[in-house]
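Sequence in, structure out. Go.
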Amino acid sequence: MVVNAIVNGLLCCMLYEMVKDENGDFKPNVAHSFPVFFVKFPCAMALHFVLYPEVANGMSLMKFANNQQHLFVDYGSEISWILGFSQMFSALFCEGICIYLLTF
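Output:
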């Protein structure tokens, strides 16, 4: 739930960057050129829908490793948690970089 809020915040930041003009002022027009906005926004939404399951899988792996420690060998739950965290972090990092590239 927290990760979803972070990702949605990144999408809102991207929307803010696409709406403001070069001086930082909000104008009634959407972007510098509307065809560019028309392409960037669906790309950002598609990116979010593609990477969200990766974040959710990483978080469910971390939750399983925390709640079911008795099913693992010694230090196996910690290793599983780190693997889930690395999956979640890499997906969030990828989404952050892609949103940055789409914004600028």
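Check: The chain has a mean pLDDT of 78. Residues 19 and 84 are 35 Å apart (CA to CA).
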